[in-house]
């Protein structure tokens, strides 16, 4: 039952999780969680008040004292339990992600499995402990460098991977000895709630992991609190920049993964069927709401003749949210209106709409897949991150021209080339200024041991999420020089 500031409703209200307990916020309701496939209101989300955010941080600060001094093997054993329970509850996550996010079964399973893999990687922390020690660096002087946890770290999450992205943050922050306060997306808060339940069952000491619900004001309260030592943000570029600037002004570290415009270069010597299937899956899978979705196809030379076959593939994309579906609805009516406006702008600005699929229902936030050609870099549909099932197609004459186009783009999250030429692939991989490159792979997301290495306006910060840099982000080096001989 929603009950905040005297407001009564039969719709459930999302709760905060502070000091090991679920709590009802006294803040105002800031929005509804709806089923994107039907428009049905499922829950409401409060905007946690500053004092509630401060209380969550205080609880994390208190927990940090004993958590950070617990033997590493003990902290890791909590993570093993956490991982085990997530694994047992995969079906709960899949159902939650489908309900709140409108994902297909495959996409929802991928969301939690990719997150689970980071928890598994964090379980290996005992084998990754890195310190340095040298005896007699000067006469009778020894030197060591140790890595210590930071303290209270916070995470701010987007809507599009409600399980995976919190799990990019929480396991590594926690095994390295920090305590954590998570602010889930107000559009899909249910998966974080499941993680809180799991942290209880895994026996995490109260305060090690906390959740505050909310939007902008809650984020501001988190960033303004002087006890917060680091912020992990994933979301759009305009908001990520604000978060990064605020963190930097306070002298705390930030890792901000942000928006994208990912280009796939199609060479005429590519394997045609593999390339067409890859482009279709990468452009329309997850309804284009992946930061690594391919949203621009760059056809080089003769490869433009593949366009009709690509349109045919788009027409075959199955809309729905069940096991056999390829693509679900968009997250919100606002996202739907934005996609439609950008597609219309392409028409007005002289592009050609080669295909625009029909929405299967007038309820919910359905749009069909869209393929647009004759696009130029000046058009809004090229400049903006659309974050929907829209593939814009450009035609260039050479690989050099394709590389120059991509390098001129302000985003640098992912890119791909489709070719059978090792020479073209090698040139592309070395000259392209994008952090994650696929060669005959459309969505080159790095596995947990490597770290997520977006660049330019897609990633601000020096230490990418997960991988070795993830451990480095959540720890600080300290050097001790000692003499015990006289
Ligand atoms: P968003 O920027 O709207 O929201 C992200 C978070 O910021 C949410 O928790 C939200 O409550 C909070 N927020 C919103 N407005 C704020 C403000 N003014 N001040 C402070 N906090 C604010 O992003 P979204 O729509 O939820 O997610 C989609 C975006 O995330 C896309 O741009 C996508 O490319 C990006 N994304 C990037 C990656 C990556 O790894 N690069 C991964 C997933 C998503």
TrEMBL record:
Q: Which Pfam families match?
A: Aldedh (PF00171)
**A single GO BP:** thymine catabolic process
Q: Which UniProt keywords apply?
A: NAD, Oxidoreductase
The residue ranges of the Aldehyde dehydrogenase domain are: 32-480
Q: What is its EC number?
A: 1.2.1.27
Coiled-coil stretches are: none
Gene3D superfamilies per record: Aldehyde Dehydrogenase, Chain A, domain 1, Aldehyde Dehydrogenase, Chain A, domain 2
Alphabetical list of InterPro entries matching this protein: Ald_DH/histidinol_DH, Ald_DH_C, Ald_DH_CS_CYS, Ald_DH_N, Aldehyde_DH_dom, MeMal-semiAld_DH
Q: Which GO terms fall under molecular function for this chain's record?
A: methylmalonate-semialdehyde dehydrogenase (acylating, NAD) activity
Entry similarity comment: Belongs to the aldehyde dehydrogenase family.
Q: State what protein this is by name.
A: methylmalonate-semialdehyde dehydrogenase (CoA acylating)
Q: Which organism is it from?
A: Galdieria sulphuraria
């Amino acid at each position: 039952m929603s009950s905040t500031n005297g407001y009564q409703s039969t719709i459930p209200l999302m709760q905060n999780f502070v000091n090991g307990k679920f709590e009802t916020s006294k803040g105002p309701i800031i929005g509804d969680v709806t089923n994107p496939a039907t428009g049905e209101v499922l829950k409401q989300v409060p905007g946690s008040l500053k004092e509630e955010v401060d209380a969550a941080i205080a609880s994390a600060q208190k927990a940090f004292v004993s958590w950070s001094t617990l033997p590493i093997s003990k902290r890791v054993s909590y993570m093993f339990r956490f991982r085990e329970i997530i694994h047992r509850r995969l079906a709960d996550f899949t159902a939650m992600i489908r309900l709140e996010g409108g994902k297909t079964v495959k996409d929802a399973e991928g969301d939690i499995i990719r997150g689970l893999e980071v928890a598994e990687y964090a379980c290996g922390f005992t084998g990754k402990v890195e310190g340095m020690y040298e005896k007699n660096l000067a006469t009778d002087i020894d030197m060591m460098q140790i890595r210590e946890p930071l303290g209270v770290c916070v995470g701010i999450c987007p809507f599009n991977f409600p399980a995976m992205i919190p799990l990019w943050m929480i396991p590594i922050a926690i095994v390295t000895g920090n305590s954590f306060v998570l602010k889930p997306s107000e559009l899909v808060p249910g998966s974080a709630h499941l993680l809180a339940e799991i942290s209880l069952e895994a026996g995490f000491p109260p305060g090690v992991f906390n959740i505050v619900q909310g939007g902008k004001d809650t984020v501001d309260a988190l960033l303004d609190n002087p006890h917060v030592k680091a912020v992990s943000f994933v979301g759009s570029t305009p908001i990520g920049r604000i978060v990064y600037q605020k963190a930097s002004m306070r002298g705390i570290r930030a890792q901000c993964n942000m928006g994208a415009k990912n280009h796939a270069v199609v060479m005429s010597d590519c394997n045609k069927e593999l390339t067409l299937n890859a482009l279709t899956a990468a452009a329309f899978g997850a309804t284009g709401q992946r930061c690594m979705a391919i949203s621009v196809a760059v056809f080089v030379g003769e490869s433009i003749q593949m366009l009709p076959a690509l349109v045919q593939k788009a027409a075959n994309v199955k809309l729905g949210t069940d096991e056999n579906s390829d693509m679900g609805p968009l997250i919100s009516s606002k996202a739907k209106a934005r996609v439609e406006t950008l597609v219309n702008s392409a028409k007005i600005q002289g592009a050609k709409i080669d295909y625009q699929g029909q929405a299967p229902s007038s309820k919910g936030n359905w749009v069909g897949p869209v393929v647009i050609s004759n696009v130029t870099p000046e058009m809004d549909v090229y400049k903006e991150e659309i974050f929907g099932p829209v593939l814009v197609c450009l035609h260039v004459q050479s690989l050099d021209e394709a590389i120059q186009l991509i390098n001129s783009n302000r985003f640098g999250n992912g890119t791909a080339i489709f070719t059978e030429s090792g020479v073209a692939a090698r040139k592309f991989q070395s000259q392209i200024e994008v952090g994650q490159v696929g060669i005959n792979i459309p969505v080159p997301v790095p596995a947990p041991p490597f770290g997520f290495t977006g660049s330019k306006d897609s990633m601000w910060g020096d230490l990418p999420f997960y991988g070795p840099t993830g451990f480095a982000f959540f720890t600080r080096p300290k050097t001790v020089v000692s003499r015990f001989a006289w």
